[in-house]
Amino acid sequence: MAQHQTILTATDISPQRKRMPRSRFQKQTPEDSAPDSTVEKENTVQLGDPAPEATPPAPQLSPDAEILARAQAGDHHAFAHLYSLHKRRIYSLCLRMVGNVAEAEDLTQEAFLQLHRKIATFRGDSAFSTWLHRLSINVVLMHLRKKGLPLMSLDEAMEPTYDDGPGRSFGAPDLSLTGSIDRLALERAVAALPAGYRLIFVLHDVEGFEHNEIAAMLDCSVGNSKSQLHKARLKLRDALRLTLRKGDRR
Amino acid sequence: MTTDPRTMGCQEFRDQLSDLVGSGAVVENHPHIKDCEICRELYEQLQTIADAARQLFPDQEPEDSLWERIESAIKKED
Predict the structure, then answer these.
(1) Is the ipTM above a cut-off of 0.85?
(2) Which fold has domain A156-249?
(3) How far apart are the C-alpha atoms of B57 and B44, rounded to whole Å?
(4) d(CA A89, CA A85)
(5) CA angle, corner A235, sides to A232 and A238, nearest 5?
(6) What is the pLDDT of residues B21-68, one digit of tens each?
(7) CATH 1.10.10.10 occupies which residues in chain A?
(8) Which of A33, A198, A217, B14 maximizes the CB count within 10 A of its CB?
(9) Which tens digits make up the pLDDT trace of A123-179?
């Protein structure tokens, strides 16, 4: 996978994420509050056009909400449409968590099967995409538990530490000084994290969720989410330093 | 009780790191970082990892055949 061997530098990283620019990236702009369609309508009103109706039309469901409502009512085509809308995000989450195409496909299948069973129970207390993400995360976590993989490292010896910190190491290239990280090495290090750390790192740093959103999805506290993310990053730093040292010996 | 950033020790600063990394805050001007090279490098390394993460694991499409599998499984359940 040659494309994974790209070296990333600080200047390579676009400030705008392409994937799911959720709350932290969805700052409302003037354009957001005045959709083009509205502006266009206002600009194209002609003299002699009939006056706007005095009574507002009955509220209509957005196309997405209509598809959801139809799927909830058992419309198979609507469910297929929902799948096509959400498959990429759910499959990508599964793939990031298990790192294996076959397993990721199985988990995506299980997530959508569960969605099919439970979709009628969705009441709209949260966004549908958030609800589906939570459902999918639970599928992934169940799978990892069945495999006996540790979700969180409780072993003190596994905890990342500040020992051998910057300035105290011998011969290890400094990430901040080199200003670059080997993408393949970082992906390997993420894959080697205990699953719980990996999940929070993927949700926060890769997918861009906020801590409060992660806490709601994982049913944990915001403080816990922050703490686990910090430990995950420390472990990645340790792993990358190890990788760099191994590389030095070659 | 929060400590004055100017007199903050390494441990107290590191306790705050989880909030600072990736927050968009201008940590470079934090008084502790200005004085402590070790904590500054640690912060920069963690920030580099957080920044690089944005380009990890690009979104991927599942194979088209996956829907056929799901559809078939749904029919079995119905």
Answers:
(1) no
(2) Arc Repressor Mutant, subunit A (1.10.10)
(3) 22
(4) 9
(5) 155
(6) 767 777 888 888 888 889 988 888 888 898 899 888 889 999 999 999
(7) 156-249
(8) A198
(9) 988 889 989 999 999 999 899 888 876 555 433 334 454 544 444 333 444 454 445
The CATH 1.10.1740.10 domain(s) of chain A lie at 64-149
Residue-level pLDDT at B5: 65
Going from N- to C-terminal start, the domains of chain B cover 5-77
Q: What is the CATH number of domain A64-149?
A: 1.10.1740.10
SS3 (DSSP) at A9: strand
Shortest Cα–Cα distance, B61 to chain A (Å): 5
Stretch 15-74 of chain B: residues touching chain A, C-beta under 8 Å: 17-19, 21-22, 37-38, 41-42, 44-46, 48-63, 66-67, 69-71, 73-74
